[in-house]
Design goal:
By secondary structure, the protein is mainly β. The protein has 1 helix and 4 strands; from the N terminus they run βββαβ. β1 (15-20) and β2 (25-30) form a beta hairpin. It binds zinc ion.
Length: 68
């Protein structure tokens, strides 16, 4: 089973988060079928608590946004 990318978190991830450094953008996608070591799979709690670096924008591209 896949788990949240946050250390010591064992919840099931629901979304894949990528950091686009060139665009200063945090992109939230529906969970990818394949785990990508460069990306973060996060659980709902950690997505809700995610704080992007100052000056970055968050783009939520999920087709089915999860209420958190
Ligand atoms: Zn988590």
């Amino acid at each position: 089973m896949r788990v949240c990318a946050k250390m010591r978190c064992s919840h099931e991830p629901v979304a894949t988060v990528s950091l686009v450094y060139t665009e200063r953008m945090v992109v939230v996608d529906d969970l990818f079928d394949e785990r990508d070591p460069n990306l973060l799979d996060l659980c709902p709690e950690h997505i809700a608590r995610m704080t992007p670096p100052v000056g970055w924008v968050v783009q939520d591209r999920r087709t089915t946004p999860v209420a958190v």
